[in-house]
Design goal:
With 352 residues, the chain is an all-alpha fold. Helices cover 69% and strands 2% of the residues. It contains twelve helices and two strands, in the order H-H-H-H-H-H-H-E-E-H-H-H-H-H. It has a two-stranded antiparallel ribbon with strand order 1-2. Strand 1 and strand 2 form a beta hairpin. The radius of gyration is 22 Å and the shape is globular. The termini are far apart. The N terminus is likely disordered.
Amino acid sequence: MEQPVSEAAASTAITGISPDVVPTWVWLATVGAIAALFIFDFFTHVRKPHEPTFKESALWSTFYVALALLFGWGVWHFWDREHGIEYFAGFITEKSLSVDNLFVFVIIMKSFAVPRAYQQKALLIGIVIALIMRGIFIAAGAAAIERFSWVFYIFGLFLLWTAWKLIVESMKHQKSTDEEYEPNAIVKYFQRHLPTVPDFRGNALTVIENGKRYFTPMFIVILALGMTDLLFALDSIPAIYGLTDAPYIVFTANAFALLGLLQLYFLIGGLLDRLVYLGIGLSLILAFIGLKLIVHAVEANTLPFINDGQPVEVPGWMHIEIEQSLLVIVSILVITTVASLLKSRSDARKGV
């Protein structure tokens, strides 16, 4: 009697993509395509310094979101349904975290008084640096997870701590782009020790004066953006590993979340202050994913001081499928966004 063919087996037979292993050529093609998109972004938006119009930003933001959705459809169609849903859940989570990053990007730009026409170059280079660093984190995370199941405990507890910190900060004061930027130790070190000129020289990173090379404020801005995203990656990488254990999905969801962030910055930069409850929404999402990670860690437990090193059986209701995770994430984002806009409108009417 002929046995039915599973969805995963059928996908492997058609595309050659295993449910567990992505072929090297797919990785190379994907990385090459993403690199080409960033190069395209540079030549179409950054090479000629200008301040993007609202229409230009809206059109390109739509293009990159549509491209991300098309890629997700490709994952669903050519790989399988489960990985497709994992990609969409990861992309939405990473995109929402990226929007939160924009708060700090706006603050950095204001603090260094970067001319609007030159901000695109700083942002694009900062985003590319961010993707490279995230790629390193993703590879390190995948290697750690493969060798040590207890890493999920660390990821889960870290996300719960981050969620708690984020919600406390959100309750204390409303996040605003008028806040002051406080450089971290690395940025302060370079500010003190690098030979720099006091003003911008177009969008150049270095200039030569009197036979000596100097760095411009643009270089420090890019450094500040890169270091800032390095800190944000500490949240985002564990978060997406709570939704999928496939490094390919983790990488592509991050890449497509960062693609178009340049245009999104100019599109909604002035509207960020209206997203008053975004921090609360993100904290709920991080807490939800953190709990998922801890449940997974308990089920795969090998730590000797927990249940004598044996896996712990958890109740069935604690098993949350990826479809349910996607629904929870989207619901939280929709509710907090609508509540934010209603609050902002109400404050505007009251003159607050």
